């Protein structure tokens, strides 16, 4: 049964490849139904993948092969809370090493242009630290990073 609220992500033509990558990379992720074109259409042929239902870390999504008309931006991103440096490294490297690109402050893009925030929980907790001086040090440390370094955030908290 389709979820009542689903995130629809637009792809040029690689929704199935993206969904399969997410399935193998992120826990609690899967690929569901794949809808194919029942006939030829202006930019494709019968049998082309139109829509892929998938789940990323328990979140229901639909990948729409809508063509090159729409482009992604950081205005939409998946934020992944990681438990430690090993998980942060694994997810970050999976995205970046699979044709993606690094950005700043824990952000990266996959090869399809979708933005991801790979955010260790220690960073989120540090930025909300009631000791505002400690939070500011953690924030300043984060601003110097691409992939978040948990040890550096912890060191910044301690001063």
Helix percentage: 25-40%
CATH architecture of the largest domain: Roll
Specify the oligomeric state. Answer: single chain
Strand content: 25-35%
- Major sheet strand order: 1-4-3-2
Q: In one word, what is the shape?
A: elongated
CATH class of the largest domain: Alpha Beta
Explain what this protein looks like in three dimensions:
The protein is of the alpha/beta class. It has two domains: 1-69, 2,3-Dihydroxybiphenyl 1,2-Dioxygenase, domain 1, CATH 3.10.180; 72-159, 2,3-Dihydroxybiphenyl 1,2-Dioxygenase, domain 1 (Roll), CATH 3.10.180.10. 32% of the residues lie in helices and 28% in strands. It is built from five helices and eight strands, in the order βαββββαβββααα. It has helices at residues 15-25, 85-96, 121-127, 132-143, 150-158; strands at 7-11, 30-36, 49-56, 59-65, 77-82, 101-102, 107-109, 115-120. The strands form two sheets. The chain has a four-stranded mixed sheet. Strands 5-8-7-6 form a four-stranded mixed sheet. Strand 3 (49-56) and strand 4 form a beta hairpin. Helix 4 (132-143) packs antiparallel against helix 5 (150-158). The longest helix has 12 residues, at 85-96. The model has no long low-confidence stretch (mean pLDDT 96).
């Amino acid at each position: 049964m389709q979820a009542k609220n689903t995130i629809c992500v637009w792809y040029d033509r690689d929704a199935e490849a993206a969904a399969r990558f997410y399935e193998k990379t992120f826990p609690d992720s899967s690929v569901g139904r794949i809808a194919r074109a029942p006939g030829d259409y202006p930019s494709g042929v019968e049998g082309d993948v139109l829509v892929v239902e998938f789940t990323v870390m328990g979140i229901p999504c639909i990948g729409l092969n809508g063509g090159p008309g729409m482009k992604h931006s950081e205005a939409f991103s998946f934020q992944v809370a990681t438990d430690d440096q090993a998980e942060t490294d694994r997810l970050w490297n999976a995205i970046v090493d699979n044709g993606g690109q690094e950005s700043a402050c824990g952000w990266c893009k996959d090869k399809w242009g979708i933005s991801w925030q790979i955010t260790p929980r220690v960073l989120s907790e540090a930025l909300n630290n009631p000791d505002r001086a400690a939070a500011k040090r953690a924030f300043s440390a984060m601003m110097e990073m691409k992939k978040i370094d948990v040890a550096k955030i912890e060191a910044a908290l301690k001063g």
